[in-house]
Write a structure and sequence with these properties.
alpha/beta; Rossmann fold; 2 domains; six-stranded mixed beta sheet; 33% helix; ATP-binding; translocase; ABC_transporter-like_ATP-bd; Dipeptide transport ATP-binding protein DppD; ATP hydrolysis activity
């Protein structure tokens, strides 16, 4: 047992009332958190990890849950232990924010869009600390500096939508720390963030823990983050705790079968060293899929030359263009049939805009895009529609890209209807085959998107993209929001389809370990330009551009013995991509450092 547990969860049971009866979210879960300790609670979606944390804050009741058993013993700042499960609702208002702080997964929903950052930061201080407005403002400024937000004075006056994702998450951390809580609960705080911003946020939480002595309860499904952060690990599966122990023991000598399977399924950076071709991922509970390496062909399918995409910035009384966002700047790349080219980089580097520009979902300013010998840029609107038979897109968020009011079978059939493919019966048969192909039961055709899990929805999005037998699929962060096991299944499905159908993928991602596993070739983007491009093995094992080197250094590795130190992360702030009208950057000039391995020599600002 621990020396001084400041929080003890004993035999917790949480139930949810649904139309189909009572569902038990968490059953008989017990663990403790000591002063100054980081406890990571890991598991997949639906394992009960978030329910456990929300129970400690008693927020689970706002989501339809009820604590029906167990104790939540917590030592308040004055040292008196109380059972949070038995506290009246009014008393919890004094504990939330003051004694227990919380960092939520999605900062945009955790922050109020109509209040300034200053108002949201000072709210807790004014309530719990009885500070004057000026004292609260000074404390807010200190917190902004503590979480390393540049120009804190200016940021305080801004609204959440004016900040980037990483900045917003820092503000949420500052709000959680404002009243110096004894415990900080972090619920998947880095899931939606880039590898570099994730590395900074993790080192920030570690630094603040050391400086303030706050205990951290960290909820995540990313085992690499666990290896980076945890002192102790609690593994959850289907509402039960299946294993608990020090981080080294869990990683080096796991006892429970589920823990072993979860660790085996995690893609680790460097795992593909010495291999030239992509290989399927390992699956939770199964050794592999039987699919071998995917060779692809030497035939060029997609050729992009000097692609430029800019967005106008309007201003003034007449809404004139006063500047341009240089989203994609002089990008050239080649993708062979049956192969995967991955574009990696941070948010705002232009990788998604590049993918959309190739499909002309966003109109490029200039450049050449050739798909299977056809000049996409020269096509009229009608001809472009026909050309889209050969190119499809899988979006990041399947819930947003599927219509909530339409049955899934109808949505997968929609491309067939739009292009007049087959009669009603043939279309129904084709949709049924597609559901078989993405391994979904045929009765799911009658369901709606909200009735499926995230991984199942992404399979529907893949089925819809496959409906017209395309040659090229652009997958924009298609697996970034999925659990490790679901992610492995979806990626293996995509690779299997590539093997069978000869598909080519332009795979847009910021997850370097996944990219290393699935790619034939890799392009690294920074500030609208490709700074390095080449065979996957060359880019990962011999990175030449300073940005590629920094990016690979920031990736957390699922091994507690290889933790990143704050001094290892030497990121420069990203310059603004907004330039005045008439600004023409230099063209991209590359040097070939190996067969097919090109590095940008033009100054990219890094």
């Amino acid at each position: 047992m621990l020396d001084h547990p400041i929080a003890q969860v004993r035999n917790l049971r949480v139930e949810f009332e649904t139309r189909n009866g009572t569902v038990v979210g968490v059953e008989d879960v017990s663990f403790e958190i000591a002063a100054g300790e980081t406890v990571c609670i890991v598991g997949e979606s639906g394992s009960g990890k978030s329910v456990s944390s929300l129970s400690l804050m008693r927020l689970v009741e706002f989501g339809g849950g009820e604590i029906t058993g167990g104790e939540l013993i917590f030592d308040r700042k004055d040292g008196t232990p109380i059972d949070l499960a038995k506290q009246p609702v009014g008393a919890m208002g004094e504990i939330r924010g003051n004694d227990i702080g919380m960092i939520f997964q999605e900062p945009m929903t955790a922050l109020n869009p109509v209040f300034t950052i200053e108002r949201q930061l000072t709210e807790g201080l004014l309530r719990h600390k009885n500070m004057s407005k000026e004292a609260a403002r000074q404390r807010a400024l200190e917190l902004m500096k503590q979480v390393r937000i540049p120009e804190p004075e200016r940021r305080l006056k801004q609204y959440p939508h004016e900040l980037s994702g990483g900045m917003r998450q820092r503000v949420v951390i500052a709000i959680a720390l404002a009243c110096e809580p004894k415990i900080l609960i972090a619920d998947e705080p880095t899931t939606a963030l880039d590898v570099t911003i994730q590395a900074e946020i993790l080192s920030l939480i570690n630094r603040l823990k050391e400086e303030t002595g706050t205990s951290v309860m960290f909820i995540t499904h990313d085992m690499a983050v666990v290896a980076q952060m945890a002192d102790r690990v609690v593994v959850m599966y289907r509402g039960h705790k299946v294993e608990e122990g020090p981080v080294d023991q869990i990683f080096n000598n796991p006892q429970h079968d589920y823990t072993k399977a979860l660790l085996a399924a995690v893609p680790k950076l460097g795992e593909m060293r010495g291999k030239t071709l992509p290989e399927p991922m390992k699956l939770v509970g199964r050794d592999g899929t039987g699919g071998g390496p995917i060779a692809g062909t030497e035939k060029v399918l997609l050729k992009v030359e000097n692609l430029v995409t800019r967005f106008p910035v309007k201003g003034g009384f007449f809404r004139r263009t006063i500047a341009n966002v240089h989203a994609v700047e002089d990008v050239s790349l080649t993708l062979n049939a049956g192969r995967t080219l991955s574009l990696v980089g941070e948010s705002g580097c232009g990788k998604s805009t590049c993918g959309r520009s190739i499909l002309r979902l966003v109109e490029p300013l200039s450049g050449k895009v050739e798909l299977d010998g056809k000049d996409i840029m020269a096509l009229s609107h009608r001809d472009l529609q026909k050309a889209r038979l050969d190119m499809q897109m899988i979006f990041q968020d399947p819930f947003a890209s599927l219509n909530p009011q339409m049955r899934l079978g109808v949505q997968v059939a929609e491309p067939l209807i739009n292009y007049g493919v087959g009669n009603a019966q043939e279309r129904t048969d084709r949709v049924a085959q597609l559901f078989d192909r993405v391994r979904l039961p045929r009765d799911f055709m009658r369901r709606y998107p909200h009735e499926l899990s995230g991984g199942q929805r992404q399979r529907v999005a893949i089925a819809r993209a496959l409906a017209l037998n395309p040659k090229l699929i652009i997958a924009d962060e298609a697996v970034s929001a999925l659990d490790v096991s679901v992610q492995a299944e979806v990626l293996n499905l995509m690779m299997e389809l590539q093997q069978e159908l000869g598909l080519s993928y332009l795979f847009i991602s910021h997850d370097m370990a996944v990219v290393e596993r699935v790619s034939h070739d890799v392009g690294v983007m920074y500030l609208g330009r490709v700074v390095e491009i080449g065979p996957r093995q060359a880019v990962f094992e011999d990175p030449r551009h300073p940005y590629t080197q920094a990016l690979l250094k920031a990736v957390p590795i699922a091994d507690p013995g290889m933790r990143k130190l704050a001094r290892d992360l030497n990121f420069k702030p990203i310059p603004s991509p907004v330039h005045p009208v008439g600004h023409e950057p230099e063209p991209s000039v590359y040097t070939e450092v190996g067969p097919g391995h090109h590095v940008l020599v033009t100054d990219s600002g890094y």
